[in-house]
Write a structure and sequence with these properties.
- This protein is mainly α.
- The protein has one domain.
- Strands 1-2 form a two-stranded antiparallel ribbon.
């Protein structure tokens, strides 16, 4: 089942109206909330991938982008944490 578009999700909100007749809150059903969260997560994932694109090109060329660890360095760091019993649970 495909996810509804953001426009479809936001098409018919329900409003809570104050004593002055002005909207004070929006009430949404759980499915709409989940669709909004999924949309925002997808957008965030896209931003992360966009930011990492240059590093991915470097990795494809066999280079090590600044701030990235080699697999060996990562394993050594994990081993040190395990020996010190400092791994998060």
């Amino acid at each position: 089942m495909s996810r509804p578009s953001l426009e479809q999700v936001l098409a018919a909100p329900s409003f809570v109206v104050g004593a002055d007749g002005r909207p004070t809150a929006v009430v949404i059903d759980l499915g709409t909330w989940q669709a909004i969260v999924a949309y925002l997560e997808d957008e965030q994932d896209g931003e992360i991938m966009h930011e990492a694109a240059e590093d991915m090109v470097s990795l494809a060329r066999g280079e090590h982008p600044a701030g990235w660890k080699t697999w060996g360095a990562f394993e050594a760091e994990l081993d040190a944490l395990e020996q010190a019993d400092e791994l998060p649970s």
